[in-house]
Amino acid sequence: MTDPRQPAKEPVGTFCLVLHTHLPWLAHGGAWPVGEEWLHQAWSSAYRRIVGVLSELAEEGRRDLLTLGITPVLAAQLDDPYCLSELHTWLGFWQTRAQELAARREPHLRKLADYEFRAASTALADFEARWRHGASAVLRPLVDDGVVELLGGPATHPFMPLLDERVAAFQLRVGLADARWRLGAAPAGIWAPECGYRPGLEHVYAAAGVLRFLVDGPSVAGATAEARLVGDSDVVAFARDLDVTYRVWSPRRGYPGGRYYRDFHSFDHASGFRAFRVTSTASTAEQKAPYDPVAGLAAARADAADFVAVIEARLRQLRAERGRPGLVVAAYDTELFGHWWHEGPEFLAAVLRLLPAAGVRVATLRGALEVGHLGGRVQLAESSWGSGKDWRVWQVPDLQDQAWNVQDRLLRVVDKVVQADTPRLPELDQLAREALLATSSDWAFMVTKNSAPDYARRRATEHADRFARLAEGIEAGWPDHRLSADLRRIDGPFGHLDARLLARG
User: Where are the domains of the chain?
Assistant: First the structure.
């Protein structure tokens, strides 16, 4: 019997799929159109379905399937009792909305109502059976059984090149400890937020015990066929192969724009459901055809076969050029697969099943190193995976000034308060927590991309203002215990966070 975990013939090379799973801290941050519902939709349409795919593949005996990055701030929400309760309620409303849609006269909407009701019922049953006590218990077997390699990261997903180095080290320390508490071990690799890099960050990573991280292809001038040691460190960088990655999704093209796929942007406004398919890139909203799930699934399978052919061709090209097997790393936001692209989980399942038969070794980043895909040393340039592949997306002047002021004041307060015998102080911990939340990279991204910029500025400023109120009390020698406790109930991730670790020495 053929082993589904191994290529059917001599491997032409290795393919690593990396998924970056992240949302900012949304609890108590509003619900709609931006806020907690973002988390609910991402869980129901992407996270739950992808975990289901991985579980099915694991039952087939497949291991070392992909590298799964989960940011600590998202992991905290997926385990948080308040967030889980709100998600449970939202799933019930989803069922109710589908029942209401069934009363519409339009035949395509009545058909969609049945599809949505079954999807909502399946998600609700899955939540109540496996997820209601948190994601960690669902994810840990996939990690322990070697189905996935887990990537961690800094606590609140800051753009690391623009952080004070002490704050950057603290962010990473808190984030890795969070993964250790939830899943039993600190990850050996991280998803560097936004693939942001500046020279010297590898030493921050090494000091925290991080062995590998992701950068974008241009940071290594497109030489992505092997992992590279960074500078004079023992830390390894993997770079995205953009020629392959962009076949799925790029700023201008990709499979999700196919005519049969569910259109993310077109709604039946009375119900809020996405009722149409893409139809064509030139179609207006009025010209969109009704969504057909059967046609969408067939398109996903066809595009999966095409993607596998692209990967195989790229690896054959690398082997011909280099005289030895090469490596292709494709990395995406997890939310693409299911949330933005409804058929994405089915696409992933087909790709991961088809690759071994095409002679391609499927591996995690750890697995790629184990089979020898490590080259020489490289000096990386300042970079990111954002527009221009530089830092411009996150250099929003008012937010950057606010973040620097918060960091500077945080360090001054900690250095003033913390002595060798200082006990742990809840007010100081909440001060640090608000500072970390204020410096999330999401706020600048949403402003630059004009994606809910008012919401992003409001959220960043709220955390900065809460930070300032706490700092005033601590600096005056009268820390506000009630304020700290109230804010902890609103902004309470990372219960293990100990602000004393920020102190010099």
Answer: 15-79+134-378, 396-502
